[in-house]
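Example 3.
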Amino acid sequence: MAETSTTPVGVEVKNLSKSFGQQVVIEDVSFDVKPGEIFVLMGPSGAGKSVLLRHLVNLEKPDAGQVLIDGKDAADPATHKAIRTALVFQAGALFNSMSVFDNLAFYPREHRLYNKSTLRDKVERVLKILHIEDTAKKLPAELSGGMRKRVAIARALVMEPQLLLYDEPTSELDPVTAANISEIIGTLKEEFSVTSIAVSHDRDLALGIADRVGLLMNGKLIALATPEELAASTDPQVAEFMSPKIDIQDPRFRKIS
Amino acid sequence: MNTARNILEAIGSSLVLLLRSIGYLPSLPRQLGRVFDYAFHIGYLTFPIVAILSFFLGAVLALQTGYSMNFAGGQELIGRIVGLAVARELAPLITAFLLAGRVGSSITAEIASMTVYQEVDALRTMQTPPERILVMPRLIAILFMMPVLTIVAVLLGWFGGGVVAQHVEFIGLDPNVYWANLKSVTEFKDVMNGLIKAEVFGFFVVLIACNQGLITRGGPREIGFSVTRSVVTGMFLVLLLDYVLTRILM
């Protein structure tokens, strides 16, 4: 494999649109992410966040518009050979038949990046950074939800990505474990030179670690701001999403129906 | 209308998968470990059942032939009938059917589960195409294993026929007569015909199983549907190919 750079890369999403059948999932979305930035794309469930993320790793092709990674088209497989991109899947997507160590070692082994001892050192280093050394010999099925997320992040880090994507990294976790994962994502730039993009509906994650936040609703980007600006927004849709009030006297689902 | 479209889609995706897998043949030397793993898995799953079934298939064929010939004489023909039928038709067919049931279902279940739980997507994001590590090595493995399994089926089918011809009371054929008759009509080319059929059957059964796994969408329920579809399609295709190949090889 050709030697790849390890500098973080910028991302440009230009007028991206995507539909599945009659259902419009993403409609003319544009934004950019600077190299080294932590960008969180927020939005309610079904807003199109994960679909947008999948465009960045060429798991979906846009109907219209373009995603550029370091100026190169993300829909071109050659881009991902030249630029290391990694995605941490919502459910981990760990290889269930392999141990945690083998999961982490999979990418470097397949691409013959290192010799055996260097590979072991790299894997052990990442396991140590994320404090999951004890899991190395375990199978994914033996891990808790939080541990699986950490292993999934570890597997992505062994790839030494220039662009690291997270799909709902804190979903289905208890508040403390979710905070732990958020801290891991927020502090990774101390150890790794990487641009991070996370899609999430976790306000604490977005406000706690993001450099900038985008808010996606019904496939449209309705806000793009720093966490502070977003928290202070007076836009009714943004304010409703950021601080929803539970009103059992006048519940939302009754209004919708 | 939907059924017709599904069939056409499955044929189209199988062909695309085949072409992509062929495209990864240059990486075969690096996938030899996986080829051996898959070959072992195929042999381990299929060998015992192929051995048992082919023995009894030969035995039943000899028994039925002996029973029919009992009224007209000419029981020495049992060796000829068993020899040719097993080598040219029954051994490759029964091996392919068992392969579809045992190995095809297992391959589809594994790959479908990987697809549904996003492991296949994870492979793609790691620039490791599933065709390279999940499909192509399995296709090569079956090309190695199918002749081995078919030869075993042929030999045990013949042996089963011989045991029945000798030991069943109303047949009571001398084993020397059985084997001499078998050898007098069964030529190397007949065995080769069977092996060619078996190679083609095995290749398509595995291709369909892999494709069904990769096109699975949805959740755990769809994994079950995909496995059933893989086995049924595999068996149907084996019968179709059997007719075509028999005509060609005649």
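The CA atoms of residues 183 and 232 of chain B lie 36 Å apart. The mean pLDDT of chain B is 93.
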